[in-house]
Each structure stands twice: as structure tokens, then as C-alpha cells.
Amino acid sequence: MSLPTSSASSLAEALSGWPPPVLDPHGPFSNSVTTLAWVLFGLMTLIFIAVCAALWVAIYGSDTLRAKLGGERVVKWFGLIIPAGVLLLLLVWSLMLVRGLTTIQGDELRMRVSGNVYWWRVSYLDAAGREVHADANELHIPVGRPVVVEMVSEDVIHSFWVPKLGGKMDMIPGRTNRLKLQADKAGSYGGQCAEFCGGAHALMGFVVVAHEPADWQRWMDSRLKPVAAADLTVEALRGRQLFNEVGCAACHRVAGTEAQGISGPDLTHVGSRLSLGAGILPNTRATLIGWIGDSQSIKPNNRMPAYRSLKAEELNALGSYMEALK
Ligand code: CUA
């Protein structure tokens, strides 16, 4: 099985440039949105040229030219009938397209993502809508199968957007929106919050990783086994102890341990994520330590306090523990 590894180059690959490219579809749902975007762009360009030409004739055209191209008939057709017809067609087409992006057939993989300032809570659901695996800031999906993502928000309005795999959908407190994603090819795809949600809104990214179906199933199975204490080094065990002592466990959950906080991202498998800080940093020992020690200077006003009082040895131990949570 080829699971993506944590390194700076895989983050760059994961995000394939920043911000995620918007007109490069890699799945059927993103394809239809991109086609609509190009048709709109083409039509608007034609109309812009036509309006400029009409303006030119009105200002500089000779009397004969104006008489030939002007008049009530032209206004009726080009000012009313044709625009109304074009807009109506576009409205019907986009409504049908949105239906395709949100209609649920029943055989899709189900996930729920909730927006938080400034990160994403991710849940893998069974057919009955119960959570089977909790994660954060990264979605793993099988290639070639549609995924329905239920979207909620725990604070303000966010917007979920993976331009290469699907449309864009707002996450509104008190409401559940749905959007379908699908990837045609295995790989990593960058996502971004697309609705201003506070000062660090631009730093609210995420990654979608598409696996071949068999690899995806193995990945899912591996998620249900938390790292055992017996597999930790002495340094990581020290980190595990500090994790509880300095208060990390109040907000974060690590399955299989006493850390069961839910207000921050689930860290059960944080060591195997491609990125840190919700899609903005490569996941390495150095960035883990930097984040724990002073996440406020990296992402101002995020809800995690900066732990500037921790000693280098303590930060190293915590980093080592986080790294071990594969
Ligand atoms: Cu969340 Cu912008």
C-alpha cells in the first residue's frame, strides 16, 4: 500500500501550488462546475464585445450606420428577448447542475465535515449516519466513488471548497448542507475555506487524499487501531505524559488514551497527516514543535493557546509523541 508520507515535498504536492488551482477539474462534479464557468466566461466576453461595439456605433458611427443598426426592433431583440432567453437557459442549466452536485443516490460514501475557526472536524459515517472514525483537516476518499459530505458549522459561516473535486458549499451554523465530491485519479488535492470567517480565514486550508479503493479500505482499517503505548519510545512516552499534564488533553482526543477533549482537532493519527495547522504547514517534527510552542504567531487568534513556557526538552517530547501517532 502506498500511503502518502509526511514531508515538505508531499505537502507541496498535496496542495500543488497555493491557492488550489480552480480551473483544473479531476472529477465529474468539478468537471460540470468548470464547464459552466467557461461557458459563462465565454458568453460574458461575447456580450462585453457586443456592448463595446454598440457603444462605439452610438458615439462615433455615421448617421446611416446608426439608422441601420439602431431602432426599436434592435432594442426589443438585443435588449430584451435574447438576454432574457439566455439568462433563463443559464438558470435552468445551473439549477440542474446544482441538483447533480447535491442529489444523494444512496450508494455514496458518507462523511461529515464541520467548520471551526480555523480548522475542520472530519467524521467518516456508516450508512446510518453514525461516526466510525474521527479525524481533522484531511479527508481520505476512494477513487471513482462519489462521496457525500454533510456540512455543518460550529461557530461562524465557513465554505468548503476543493476546486479540483467538486463545487463550493457554505457551512452555516444550525443547518446541514450537502455536496458531492469525486476523484478520478489517486492523489492529493488542496482545499480552502472560501468564506471570510475571521482574521486567519486565509490560513484555513485542508487536504483531500484520494486512494485506489483497496488502498482506501486498508487505510480505513488502519485508522481503527490507535498507536499502543508499547510502541512508543521513551521520549514519546514522556510526551504522552506531558500531553495530559500541560492541558493538551482537555481539548484534544487521542483514541485509546485518557485524552478525550473534543473542542480541538482529534490527534489520534496526527503523525500520519500530510499537513499541520489545517493545510498550511508540512507535518514535520520542527513544525509540530513550532506549532505547540507558539501557534499564535503562525495562525493569529486560533483557539489554541501558545505554550511559550515549555522547555525545549518538553517541546521535543511532545513533538516526538505527536510524530509517533501514525
Ligand atoms: Cu473558515 Cu474562512
Quick overview of this protein structure:
The protein is an alpha+beta fold. Helix content is 41%, strand content 20%.
- Seen as an oligomer or otherwise, the chain set is single chain
Q: So how many helices?
A: 9
Q: Whole-number radius of gyration?
A: 25 Å
Across the major sheet, the strand order is 3-2-1-5-8
**Any guess at the CATH architecture of the largest domain?**
Sandwich
Number of domains: 3
**Main β-sheet: number of strands, strand sense, barrel status?**
5 strands, mixed
Number of strands: 12
Element order, helices and strands? HHHHEEEEEEEEEEHHHEEHH
Instruction: Report the average pLDDT across residues.
Output: 90
The CATH homologous superfamily of the largest domain is called Cupredoxins -  blue copper proteins
Stated plainly, the CATH topology of the largest domain is called Immunoglobulin-like
End-to-end C-alpha gap: 15 Å
Structural class: alpha+beta
- Uncertain regions: pLDDT < 50 for 5+ in a row? 1-8
Share in helix? 40-55%
